[in-house]
Records
---
Amino acid sequence: MTAKIIDGKKIAKIIREEIKQQVSDLFQKTGAKPGLAVVLVGERKDSQVYVREKKKQTVALGMNSFDAILPDTISEEDLMAYVQKYNSNPNIDGILVQLPLPKHINEQRVLDGISETKDVDGFSPLAIGKLAMKGREAMFSACTPLGCIELLDRSGVSIEGKHAVVLGRSNIVGLPVSMLLLHRNATVTIAHSRTKNIGDVVSQADIVIAAIGKANFVQGEWLKKGATVLDVGINAVNDKTKKKGYRLVGDVDFESAKKALGPNGLITPVPGGLGPMTIAMLMKNTLTSFQRKMG
Ligand code: GUN
């Protein structure tokens, strides 16, 4: 028997339905709706797809969608002016600047410019800094890390006392998810590209979060039977049998992992795992921001 699949698509749909209901209830009470502003600079195809999906879901959940689709020649000053305008617009509860930004723009400066109360991506140093501190609550945590915790909770996986091995130390996933797991009383090991004997480290894990950005990196033979594996990776690999010429795979070698984990193991697929959860968490953060504003 192989591991059970955690269906991120299905769980994200349930969460979206919950949010939609809450948005509708709040609208009945207040006559107001949450608003999310999305800023896209340039014409990267992947970013266009993400932004389109975020806007679509914002509207589908009954919220107001604002956007700025800007040329990649825009100056940092002009981009900052958009952020400032959204900061001071009372109808906007969340601001998301899609990354990466063109090279001539200082990404950190732009992220620093987003008001803490509207930073629904949780990418600012203030958000990550507070997340790192005991007893300080960040206004928002980053969406993929939140999605990981939510998937564990909704799949009945307890976190407290477990050994979680996080592969990757990025500001967007590895670092914040490690801190969230720590706040939930897991024992956390952060492994990365320079870690020695990484397979041995992974073999100790009850929970594996793979966010290292390498296709099929985690091998089934590394995994402990009965462990839970969340695969955050999205990697395109050449596949001539597909219309687009490629297919998406995660950071985990899915087939060997599924076998090695055994019947008590759990694993997320790619696609259909963390991807839909990330957007659902963005919607949840936007709703939370609106609720805070309305008091
Ligand atoms: N680029 C890739 N993923 C993300 C994300 O979650 N948020 C933003 N703002 N940019 C991204």
---
Amino acid sequence: ADGLVESVPDEFQDQVARVLLSEERIGARVKELGAQIGEAYRDQPLVILGVLTGSYMFVADLTRAIPLSKLEVYFIKASSYEGTGSSGQVKLSGLDHVDLTGRHVLIVEDIVDTGLTLQKLKQAVRELDCKSVAACTLLHKNTSRRLEGTPPVEFVAFEIADEFVVGYGLDYNQSLRHLPFVGIFRTKSAS
Ligand code: 5GP
Ligand code: MG
Ligand code: MG
């Protein structure tokens, strides 16, 4: 099914250039990753820290695929992006409402681009005396913008090329998050 080129639904043709990851492909990979996370933590209680807003769909699907009996899910907010360019700053909120002392924490992100958001997050979580901190991302961008010294990502669903993507939680100015697939954003050409 991998050679299949899926087409963008008519109503999104003017905003999405092409489908990068189909709903089916995402579903299969998320199940695989969920099982892998279950293996990694075995019978230990796990705290999932979803990063809003981009990870909401991924967290919903991923947590249902993690075969652990003790799992808690929290969401925090991180914002750094304006339009299709990074602002170079990260605002975190919501961490103060979660007690992570002595817990195994898995941060779940939508996409790692420069790595700055994840770096700030891992730092902030580590300061809360948890037992371990790891990161999981739906998308890991192969980009020259990756900042030096940014932390490794332990669980990656897909490595992607350096293009601006939307869908499955990822937005363009708050819209297009609800696409069930990941697509390449259609950049409007000035004419
Ligand atoms: P960072 O540069 O800190 O690794 O990524 C920060 C945030 O930028 C991501 O969590 C995501 O919200 C946004 N971002 C980075 N690349 C893309 C992209 O290709 N598409 C969308 N929609 N957001 C992106
Ligand atoms: Mg994000
Ligand atoms: Mg965004």
